[in-house]
Amino acid sequence: MNTVPPTGSYVVDIARDKVGQVMSCDRSRLRLRPVRGGLAWGSELSNIRQATTDEVLSAKVKAANAESGREEVSVLTVIRFADWAITPETASEAPAIVHELECTTCGAISGADEDFETARDWAFRHVRRTPSHTGYREIIHRFWRATLVR
Ligand SMILES: [Zn+2]
């Protein structure tokens, strides 16, 4: 990169293959920080390029997932339409995944709970009461968030 990127903008540190936010620039020496905060690192202006919107979004989703300990199975999925992107919900108050079990014989439902064990315990009680109801279907709810991408 030949020009100094503005403070707060996102760049890719080519040497580290990592997206960072520009905190400061002293001559050709940059201070970068991870997209969702954390330990800053230094890089040379010659080692960076401007990050694309997708790269920034991916890095944010990845960091959010790492924080919540969530699996990255479908989390890197970014559904885009025009200026909107839909990614797994990362708000701290939102449950990661909610489980329910439904009896395939009578359609009774355990009710939603963040712990699969709660739904499983319901199924144990249900089959004890009605021993012929041995089939269950798990319903998993995963929450998503649409965000406007600049
Ligand atoms: Zn049943």
Key words describing this protein structure:
150 residues, elongated, 2 helices, 20% helix, binds zinc ion, 2 domains, three-stranded antiparallel beta sheet, alpha+beta
Structure description:
The chain is of the alpha+beta class. The chain folds into 2 domains: 74 residues, no CATH class; 52 residues. Strands 4-3-2-1-5 form a 5-stranded antiparallel beta sheet. The protein has a 3-stranded antiparallel beta sheet with strand order 6-7-10, with no helix packed on it. Helices cover 20% and strands 35% of the residues. The chain is elongated and about 75 Å long. Strand 3 and strand 4 form a beta hairpin. The chain is built from 2 helices and 10 strands. Bound molecules: zinc ion (ZN). The site of zinc ion has 7 residues, from loops.
List the helices and strands and how they pair.
Elements: E1 10-13, E2 18-26, E3 29-33, E4 41-44, E5 48-50, H1 53-68, E6 79-81, E7 84-88, E8 97-103, H2 116-129, E9 136-142, E10 144-148
Antiparallel strand pairs: 1-2, 1-5, 2-3, 3-4, 6-7, 7-10, 8-9
Organism: Streptomyces thioluteus
Pfam family, one: DUF7848
Protein name: DUF7848 domain-containing protein
